[in-house]
Amino acid sequence: MLGVVRRKLGFGLLSATRVLPAGSVLPKKYSTAAKEITVREALNTALDEEMSADPKVFLMGEEVGEYQGAYKISKGLLEKYGPDRVLDTPITEAGFTGIGVGAAYYGLRPVVEFMTFNFSMQAIDHIINSAAKSNYMSAGQISVPIVFRGPNGAAAGVGAQHSQCYAAWYAHVPGLKVLSPYSSEDARGLLKAAIRDPDPVVFLENELLYGESFPVSAEVLDSSFCLPIGKAKIEREGKHVTVTAFSKMVGYALQAAEILSKEGISAEVINLRSIRPLDRATINASVRKTNRLVTVEEGFPQHGVGAEICMSVMEESFEYLDAPVERIAGADVPMPYAANLERMAVPQVDDIVRAAKRACYRSVSMAAAA
Amino acid sequence: MSAFAAVRIPSPVLVGARSAGEKPCAPFVSCPAGHGLHRTHVRSTRLGRPLLAVSSDVLSGQKSLGSNSSPSHHAVVSREEALVLYEDMVLGRVFEDMCAQMYYRGKMFGFVHLYNGQEAVSTGFIKLLETRDSVVSTYRDHVHALSKGVPARAVMAELFGKATGCCRGQGGSMHMFSAPHNLLGGFAFIGEGIPVATGAAFSSKYRHEVLKESNPNGLDVTVAFFGDGTCNNGQFFECLNMAQLWKLPIVFVVENNLWAIGMSHLRATSDPEIWKKGPAFGMPGVHVDGMDVLKVREVAVEAIGRARSGEGPTLVECETYRFRGHSLADPDELRKPDEKAHYAARDPIITLKKYILENSLASETELKAIEKKIDELIEDSVEFADSSPPPPRSQLLENVFADPKGFGIGPDGKYRCEDPKFTEGTAQV
Predict the structure, then answer these.
(1) Contacts of A323 (CB under 8 A, 6+ apart)
(2) Where is the signal peptide (chain A) (predicted)?
């Protein structure tokens, strides 16, 4: 059902002309007969092309080789590049992350895969202390061109230890770049940009998006396609309220925008793409246009991405705000297992619709008691 | 196995705790108990031979109790004990098979990791424990929970995500906790349970030595279960060091089923003989055939006895196998069919059944009666779980803290902050 809605929205976007944010490499019009690829294929082809273009790029992680990737993202890479460049590691996140960082110090370009970002907590010392801070501590002598990638955020029924969103954690640290793609085009462009980037990049994918198909243009499929890091994308233009989201929540925000448009509220959906550096310019420009803001994220509310966006807007566009900023986030509890509780713990489309209406003063606010 | 080598290094021979023809000896041949650093008793591990399976010599080739083979080759089990072991293993097997069925019918969801084939390890160890002893496990924890005494109804309801589950539906398959049964989880991250188990053992020793709460039967023992993949993780080695340093009452049980999802143990580990890592830290390391519950039990008796008497930790490597994939979502394409067939022939339940019948400990009808009883128990647990209500909406925000507002719990058992007099300042505090 989700895929059908997306296809409809996709075609809607394709046939309309859009004003592009400065610096975007996208063409103005696509042909409506665009090819569709899944996010999984997008990531796979991006890895494949970057590995063939640069022999210093290698992939390491659990089950990336013979198992073809725990979520089949690295399918076929072992056959193509051999065990020297696609390494199956033992279950030692701290160890192999440290090894990756050390290799990056000496000029190689590792792509370290975490089976989910929850497991990155076992390696977080290396991500923060060895990778993020090295360029600073060495006064620019040692840069760490490493990419940490893997699924992030909630999946379906996998319990508290497999469902946390780490966007806020990693975006907190200076020295890291944090990207979170939504569509196949984002996945391809941002992963290629991340691999080519000379700094450590945390690349937060989403397991439930891996199987989703999105239309892509011929330019996206070209092997030199790349998206700039630090630029958000306006997925849908609007006039009345700005909705920011990243990863899976972009899909929900687009659905919410569709529902809102039937009620006369035109929502502008911004796909953040880059959590650090955050594209404050785009967000603020949009808020200055619409005067209202709803931030959507899947992670825990306190100190989350939405909190930072709200502060950024207050600092730069306070006079333009006509209503308080609404923040939609996951419930402030570890993810429960039971299916009905899990649905309540993650934002749903209705939550976004209600928040947008509150921001537009169309309904009475009901604060959720914690 | 070097990632940079084009040649596959043949795996070393894995030798059982005792092989045919060897002089019978105490299980802890690798290191005499109670001594400090010592040389390991090296059994020949020659490279170049393909991986051999060690067959269970308790049951193959031996005719009956009291035969001319040494009595220390197998534990002497009474009829009652044998039936308890049999029932527990059948419970584990039938429960896991039912889980698979329920998963494919959509009643269970998320990650489900089944224990088929490894029952001898769980039963062999846990059936020797008392309620006060604790068990720490990984995500493959359903059968550990059942062996420790958590009712099948509670486990099944938890798997269905219902409010009557042992964690009220909040934990799920990978996070089974039960305070009354001292089941300390249920951890999804491998290696995470080992320091937790070490901590439980530490608290047991602390209560005995500092708080002077002694039990005449000895210390509370902790048994930590984890897999071969975990043995490459740093936390494992850190805990081996500290457990031996402080002589904690813990048994580290490695369920070596040779595979970590799709990663073979031999491709991931420089020295695949995990039992050897115990003596490196000064504790005994034992390798035992984990498909034979009687052998496991014999080793367990000694290991748990050591821990209880305060002699310290033991590392027990159980060679076992999981008949199903890593989880129900695993296509299980990388394991060879002949390896699977080999271990299927060593099914611990069938082996024990044969032993019981050959030694006339029980009749076929009695065993069938046990199986039938277990079938009914599992059906009942499924019905119970099915008819249980899902958790109510209000449960979403509960249990985040034991004491949400920090004002403590009043004499009537309720949170002080909920007493209106408290906030007005007129309550008796």
Answers:
(1) A291, A292, A358, A359, A360, A361
(2) none
